[in-house]
Design goal:
Strand content: under 5%
Largest sheet: none
Order of helices and strands: HHHHHHHHHHHHHHHHHHHH
Distance between the termini: 78 Å
Oligomer: single chain
Number of helices: 20
Length: 517
């Protein structure tokens, strides 16, 4: 007697084939970029171990004359250790910002699977090399700086590749919500990186880098064996943006008429009424390998410049909180370092909620820019309130951190995911999705300039008072909003057009009824 089919296999068979591959793509890209952030996090955890308060640890067991720095790791044992730590941070961030503009160009011209998996393996190597400095007893600053620069450049392979892969598999209709949830990989990676690095930070801090390096390299190998770049590669139905822009004889694409009208991969009929079998033959046309778009050509896509500059200021605010929020809580609320670190994670929790909320609202309204602009406008007074009343009790602090995290990171998450994918598959490209990697790189590269500037400006301004730092952040939020004004007006006109036509038809119907009477 044969046993019944295993429940797990029955479940897999019940899921449509296209959905299985979509799910695989989401999971692989989620884990891949989570591992990127996992490998970036150790430096912030290990800093405290590189420069300790040696007098609190008792007498020097090695009987060296200099007893105040015996427990520190040279070259971070001097009074300028904060400046050296800043140099490590900026070495990575500046290299990342510069490399991002180049990364997308290479990403278009190389297979995404090779590009992503190769970048993850090499990034794992440089992450591990930083930690090997502990085992090799290296005390030269330039070694760590060079490793950080190389790692910053290599890590630019991640974002354009994963966004391009997800954009290839998902149409515009539910892209905002899907990518809002998917974008939580950043916080997941940060949390895992903190836990893994913290496990060895006190005993052998080198392992805090070596282990994450191994993890991201292993994930790169897994991506090489299992990642599918395009639905057409496995005979699945492509999302709507793969179709020609002039498919509608009226000259209006289906996405313009109904942003929710994504070609169904589950049902038997497509929008045109043709069977899914017939539709599966048409995706073979993109296999002609359209030419990759140039850097200037990507800049000419409507909205790329506006969203890139908006992200510069939005990411400036987000990364300032990332690097300076724990110190702000210690100085203003007078919490301990550990409590301040735990409390600061609530900003990331708000960021996850804000990304999902922004994606859901933008899908429903069809207005990506308007959603970002509204959240940025509300964020400005909330930042002001957090600075003035956010420390009046733990309950108020928790609530304000979650709200500020949602309003600050919501637009940032939406622009780097759904907006980048939308613009990379813009109708002006006439179905050429090869621009997706370059557009993503331009937008995130411009934003990374703000990520490098934000912490730097906060360090320069904070000696004059934390109020001035928050005024800088509020000004950046307002500028980010103003840069989207033209796109917001365009979206508003798009909404007003159908409403005016509807009102016109209603008036005409009323007049005809009155005439009939």
């Amino acid at each position: 007697m044969r046993a019944a089919l295993a429940p797990g296999i029955r479940l897999l068979r019940a899921v449509p084939r296209d959905s299985r591959y979509r799910g695989l793509t989401l999971v692989l890209t989620f884990l891949s970029y989570a591992s990127y952030h996992l490998s970036r996090k150790p430096i912030s955890i290990v800093k405290s171990q590189l420069h300790l308060n040696c007098s609190a640890l008792g007498p020097n067991p090695h009987n060296v004359s200099n007893s105040t720095t015996w427990c520190n790791w040279a070259p971070f044992d001097g009074d300028n250790y904060n400046e050296l730590f800043g140099a490590l941070d900026n070495a990575f961030l500046v290299a990342y910002a510069i490399g991002m503009f180049i990364s997308g160009i290479f990403g278009e011209r190389l297979p995404l699977r090779y590009y992503l998996s190769g970048g993850m393996v090499v990034s794992g190597l440089f992450t591990a090399l930083f930690g090997l400095g502990y085992f090799w007893d290296i005390h030269v600053l330039w070694y760590f700086i060079i490793v950080q620069v190389c790692n910053g450049l290599v890590q630019t392979t991640g974002w354009p590749a994963v966004v391009a892969c997800v954009g290839n598999w998902f149409g515009k209709g539910k892209r905002g919500l899907i990518m809002g949830i998917w974008n939580s990989h950043t916080s997941v990676g940060n949390i895992l990186g903190s836990l893994i690095a913290g496990a060895w930070v006190s005993s052998a801090w080198g392992l805090s880098f070596v282990v994450p390096g191994i993890i991201i390299a292993v994930m790169g190998v897994i991506c090489f064996f299992f990642l599918v770049e395009y639905p057409e590669d496995v005979d699945c139905n492509p999302p709507q943006h793969h179709m020609a822009a002039d498919e509608d004889p009226g000259g209006v694409t289906t996405s313009e008429k109904d942003p929710e009208a994504v070609i169904s991969n589950e049902g038997p009929l497509s929008l045109s009424g043709q069977s899914s079998v017939d539709h599966s033959k048409s995706p073979k046309e993109p296999a002609e390998k359209p030419e990759a778009i140039s850097f200037l050509g990507a800049l000419r896509i409507p909205g790329v410049v506006e969203f890139s500059l908006c992200l510069l200021f939005a990411k400036l605010v987000s990364y300032t909180f990332l690097y300076w929020l724990p110190l702000y809580i210690v100085n203003v609320a007078h919490f301990g370092a550990r409590e301040a670190g735990d409390l600061s994670t609530l900003f990331d929790v708000g960021g996850i909620l804000g990304g999902i909320f922004a994606g859901l609202i933008s899908d429903y309204t069809g207005g990506r820019a308007t959603t970002c602009c509204v959240m940025l406008v509300v964020a400005a007074p909330m930042l002001f309130l957090y600075n003035h009343v956010g420390q009046n009790g733990i309950g108020v602090s928790v609530a304000m951190l979650i709200i500020c995290g949602a309003l600050v990171n919501g637009p940032y998450a939406l622009i780097t995911t759904a907006v980048s994918a939308d613009l990379g598959t813009h109708e002006s490209l006439k179905g050429n999705a090869k621009a997706l990697s370059t557009v993503t790189a331009i937008i995130d590269g411009t934003g990374s300039v703000g990520a490098a500037l934000g912490p730097l400006l906060a360090g320069l301004i904070s000696p004059t008072g934390w109020n001035n730092v928050f005024y800088m952040l509020i000004a950046a939020d307002v500028l980010a909003c103003l840069l989207l004004a033209r796109v917001v007006v365009k979206e508003a006109r798009g909404w007003c057009g159908p409403m005016a036509r509807q009102r016109g038809s209603s008036v005409q119907l009323t007049e005809s009824v009155m005439d009939g009477k």
